[in-house]
């Protein structure tokens, strides 16, 4: 299912989509290899984290959420649950009077986040189950982060160009400052990626991701 309603924004930027098909194939091969090895090598950690989440707060260990991917197609993104099981019941109340930057809504000190969840978010451990989404092809290792449908509903035509690339586990916005960046600054980084994507660019962002995880500035 696609959330796009403007026919003029589904045409991809030529530098991202019309490039060498072999290069795109290499990107997908890297995604398959990276996600497959990652799931195998990280399996012990994933099991331990799942148990820790399950026994320290009510609810399942995993959380599925509808996100918007390539060309506005929606998919179910999986991550470790970091909030209380009743978090959605409190969302409307928290949004009332809260400051927003563009379509994004994120609280620095969100009261719905569990103590364990706060640690998982700080070091991006909660995102590791998305290796499964990469393996399935919903996501890539590198690309703009997948947005919520309610966020995409507020996108201007320029912002909709984020949907011309397969969403990623990490990307230019994440290594460029995460939540410390404003909406426009982060959008500029994502659109630069869409326009100038290359395998080398992906490699640089993956290396920078390691540094961003070790020094988790703006992760909450």
UniProtKB/TrEMBL annotation:
Pfam families: Bac_transf. It comes from the Bacteria. This is Bacterial sugar transferase domain-containing protein. Belongs to the bacterial sugar transferase family. The keyword NAD does not apply. Residues 27-214 form the Bacterial sugar transferase domain. Keywords: Membrane, Transmembrane, Transmembrane helix. PANTHER family: COLANIC BIOSYNTHESIS UDP-GLUCOSE LIPID CARRIER TRANSFERASE (PTHR30576), SLL5057 PROTEIN (PTHR30576:SF10). InterPro entries: Bact_transf (IPR003362). The chain crosses the membrane at residues 32-55. It comes from Frondihabitans sucicola.
